[in-house]
Amino acid sequence: MDPQQTPRIDNYPSAPYQYFPATDLKQDLAAHSDEQLKLFLESWENLPVDAYMKDGADYRRRRYGSFHFSDGELVADPPGAFHQTEQINSLHGGIDRHFPPLTESTLEAGVLQSLIRFFMKRLPGEFDPTTSGVGVHQIRITATRDAKGLPAPEGVHEDGHHYVAQVLMRRTDVDGGESQLFDRDHQPLYRTTLLDEFEAVVIDDRRVFHGVSAIRPAAGVRQGVRDMLLIDYFPLQGRDAGA
Ligand SMILES: [Fe+2]
Fold first, then answer.
1. How far apart are CA 21 and CA 40, in angstroms?
2. Separation of 180 CA from ligand 1 center, angstroms?
3. CB 168 within 8 A of CB 227
4. I want to staple 181 with a disulfide (CB 3.0 to 4.6 A). Which of 44, 151, 190, 233 is the partner?
5. Which residues in 132-160 are b (16+ Cβ under 10 Å) and which e?
6. Residue 229 in contact with residue 136, Cβ under 8 Å?
7. What are phi and psi of 50, to 5 degrees?
8. How many A from CA of 209 to the centre of ligand 1?
9. Strand ranges (DSSP E) for the chain?
10. Ion ligand 1 residue ranges (Cβ < 5 Å)
11. Cα separation of 177 and 45, whole Å?
């Protein structure tokens, strides 16, 4: 890299993000049956519309749940309000949002827990599970001929966590949806378009901003779908979280 262009993030001991090809996750999930993986992927078919969209749009569906660690075990928290400050999310922050919880079948299958642990061991920086929580968002964005889908309607932003894993779960009949990372000076740092299920990028949310370009239906079809799993890793104390 040209030293003239070296961003200040290079002062840190590691890159502020990590890309994972789908094969990495699929290998790690090999202990799970094909049926378990199929059911996990199909759980995105059962996401209620996000009722908190400011513009009343219905192209985003989602569920949310959180976990904490107890003696090394992942423990699901009871369903609760999800809050972002307006500073973190100027579009949808400032209120408690009660998203529909993860389903019992999703929690019991264990695939989600495997994914949480996979990334926990590979975060681009230090992580202490004894003082941290984990948030999980299942999100579907649908684009139609009449209305494009915005995976990040707030534009380039941060989530307010320490780390966020962005995992593609399905991409069908979609154009666009480029994942974009920027340094803290808002200079472009990395971009990729996730294409395969279980392909992922993990970011250090304190060191980068991120955004995702709009999605549109592919040529010749009326509707396209992009499913994502977002896993947030955050400190339990002084939390100021978003997604
Ligand atoms: Fe985000």
1. 19
2. 11
3. yes
4. 190
5. bbbbbbbbbbbbeeeebbbbbbbeebbbb
6. yes
7. -65, 110
8. 8
9. 17-20, 60-70, 73-76, 82-83, 96-97, 132-144, 163-172, 174-176, 179-182, 188-192, 200-204, 209-212, 215-217, 223-235
10. 159
11. 19
Distance from residue 12's CA to the centre of ligand 1 (Å): 22
pTM: 0.90
**Ligand 1 mean position to 159 CA, how many Å?**
5
The amino acid at 44: W
> What is the SS3 assignment for 46?
helix
How far is 218 from 102, CA to CA, in rounded Å?
Answer: 30
**Cα 158 to ligand 1 centroid, rounded to whole Å:** 6
CA–CA gap between residue 189 and residue 168 (Å, rounded): 20
Distance 31 CA to ligand 1 centre (A): 30
State residue 240's pLDDT score. 47
Strands 17-20, 200-204: pairing is antiparallel
Per-residue pLDDT of the chain (243 residues; tens, 9 = 90+): 333 333 444 445 689 999 999 999 999 999 999 999 999 999 999 999 998 887 778 899 999 999 999 998 999 999 888 877 888 887 788 888 889 999 999 999 899 999 999 999 999 999 999 999 999 999 999 999 988 888 888 899 999 999 999 999 999 999 999 999 999 999 999 999 999 999 999 999 999 999 999 999 999 999 999 999 999 999 997 554 554
Q: 189 alpha carbon to ligand 1 midpoint, in Å?
A: 16
C-alpha 33 – ligand 1 centre gap (Å)? 31
